[in-house]
Amino acid sequence: MSIESPADRIIIFDTTLRDGEQSPGATLNVQEKLAIAHQLALLGVDVIEAGFAVASPGDFQAVKSIAEQVGKPDGPIICSLARAMRQDIQAAAEALKPAAHPRIHTMISTSDIHLKYQLNKSRSEVLAIAASMIAYAKSFVDDVEFSPMDASRTEPEFLYQVLEIAIANGATTINIPDTVGYCTPKEMGNLIQGIRANVPNIDQVILSVHTQNDLGLATANALAAIEHGVRQVECTINGIGERAGNAALEEIVMALQVRKPFFNPFFGRAADAEAPLTNIKTQEIYKTSALVSQLTGMLIQPNKAIVGANAFAHESGIHQDGIIKHRQTYEIMEAASIGLPENRIVLGKHSGRNAFRTRLKELGFELNEADLNKAFNRFKEVADKKKEMSDWDLEAIVRDQTQIQVESGFQIEHIQVICGDCTCPTATITIVTPDGKILTDATVGTGPVDAVYQVINRLVQIPNQLMEFSVQSVTAGIDALGTVTVRVGHEERIFSGQASDTDIVVAAAYAYMNALNRLYRYLEIQRPPADSVLMPT
Ligand SMILES: CC(=O)SCCNC(=O)CCNC(=O)[C@H](O)C(C)(C)COP(=O)(O)OP(=O)(O)OC[C@H]1O[C@@H](n2cnc3c(N)ncnc32)[C@H](O)[C@@H]1OP(=O)(O)O
Ligand SMILES: CC(C)C(=O)C(=O)O
C-alpha cells in the first residue's frame, strides 16, 4: 500500500502488537502475533507496528515473520519500534528487511522530567541523538517515524526545535505521544495547533498522535488531534496497552464513520461528502476484537464502546419500545456495521457438515478441511448437550478448536471430577506429556477447580501462580457454553489461556492447560540452541 495523499483521510497505525502487547499478561507468541497481523491486514489498517525488534529474540522473530508474510507489496506498512540507539535501529532494520513497505519508528524522550531522571541527558544531547539516529534509520529505510516521548509534558519551544531537527534529518512521520495520558482534549488541540504553527516544514510530513488512556481520554484526545490536522492515529484493538491502554481503534474508526458530517469539514470536505475517512473495513472489527481478546486473554468489559457484549443490547422497556418502532430512536449504528453476528438460532444436533460450513462462512470463518472437521466434531458434542446453538456458540467453538496450539505442549486426555455439598471435591486427570508419556493422578481440593488445578500442577510440574480466573457465559440460558480465562504468573511474566465448554470445570481445566503450555513454550525458548542467533549484534 502507499500513502499518497495523507491529507484526505486518517492513516490507521495499529500498535496492538507493540504497545498492546505491553499490557501485563498479554504476551503473544510468534504464531499468535502472525494470526493477529493477518487479521489486521484484512481489517485494512495502514500500518502494523509489529513489535520492538531489539526487545527479545521472540519479538525480533515476530517482526521478521510479519514482514515476510503480511508485508506484501499490496499489504500494510510493517513497522518496528526502536529507541534512538544504533543497536535498536539495526535490529529493526534487519527484522524489517523482508517487508515491501518497512518503517522504522524511533523515539527519544523530550520532557525535562524524563531527561533529568530517566535519560540523564541535557536538551542539547537529546537534540544531537535525535538528529543522528533519525539519519541512521534513514540509511536503512525511506520511511522513518519519529516520536518525542512524553511530548505533551515537553516545554513547547524545545519540542518545536526537536521536531524541526527530526524533519531536517529525514523523518517522514512525526508522532506526538501523550505518553502518560495527561492531556485533556482542549490541550491536545492546542498542542497540535502550536506544532503546526511553529515547526517549519511540518506540513511536508505526516503528523500523527499517540494517546494513552490514563484518564480515560485517549479516544477523545485522538479525535481532538484529528480536528486540528493530525492525519495518522496510533491505536490498538480493544484499546489494550501499557497501564490503562491506548485509544481504541474501533472507537476512533466508528466515531469517524458515524459522525462523518461532523469530521468532514476538518478534511476540507463538504459535510455530506460520502467517501470514508479511513480505509478500515468496519465489518471486520468484531472479528478482530474477538481474536485479540482471545489470544491476549484480555477480556472485553461488557459496556465497552463498539465491541462490548452490551454495546448493541437494549434492556429497558422504553428503549425496547423505541427500537421496535424505529431502530434509530436508540441506535446510532447497526451491529452489522462492525460485523457482529446476529443472535439467530441456526443449527442444532441434526445439522450436517454442509450447513455448518455455510453458516461459518456467513460468519466470516473460512476453515481448512482439518479445522472444519475438528470444529464440526466439537459442535456435535456440544449440540448433544445444548438444545439451541446460536452464532455466538458457533464462534466460541471455532475459536477454541482452531486456536493456535502451542507446539510440543501437554494434552489433557481425560478429566473426571466429583463434587457436591457432602463430598470432598476430587479430580482425576490423565495427560499426555510433550514426549508422549501418559500420566494419571488424582487429588482432593477445596472446590472442583482447586482439585483440578492441583492435579494438573502435580502432573505438569511447572512452577506458576494463578493470578486471575474468570468465567463468562457465551449466551444466556442454563445450558450456555462458559468461557474460562485464566492468567498464570511465572517470575516477572504472565501467560493467559482460554477455553469454552458447557461444563465450566472442564473449560477451567483446558484454559489452565493452555496457559501452562504457553509458559512451557516460553521456558523452552529461553534455552535456544547455541547456534541460533536471532538478533544482529
Ligand atoms: C512509552 C513506551 O511505550 S516506550 C516502549 C516501551 N516498551 C518496552 O520497554 C518493551 C521492551 N523493552 C525491553 O525489552 C527492554 O526495556 C529493552 C531491551 C528495550 C532495554 O533493556 P535494558 O537494556 O535492560 O534497559 P532497561 O529496560 O533496564 O532500561 C532502559 C534503558 O534505555 C534508556 N532509554 C529509554 N528510552 C530511550 C530512548 N528513547 N533512546 C535511548 N535510550 C533510551 C534508558 O535510559 C535506560 O538506559 P540506562 O540503563 O543506561 O539508564
Ligand atoms: C513509543 C511511544 C509512541 C509510546 O508508546 C508512548 O510515548 O506512549
Automatic annotation (TrEMBL):
This is 2-isopropylmalate synthase. HAMAP family: LeuA_type1 (MF_01025). Homodimer. GO terms for biological process: L-leucine biosynthetic process. The gene is leuA. One of its GO terms (molecular function) is acetyl-CoA C-acetyltransferase activity. Belongs to the alpha-IPM synthase/homocitrate synthase family. LeuA type 1 subfamily. Its EC number is 2.3.3.13. Residues 10-277 form the Pyruvate carboxyltransferase domain. PANTHER family: 2-ISOPROPYLMALATE SYNTHASE 1, CHLOROPLASTIC-RELATED, HOMOCITRATE SYNTHASE-RELATED. It catalyses: 3-methyl-2-oxobutanoate + acetyl-CoA + H2O = (2S)-2-isopropylmalate + CoA + H(+); acetyl-CoA + 2-oxoglutarate + H2O = (2R)-homocitrate + CoA + H(+). It comes from Cylindrospermum stagnale PCC 7417.
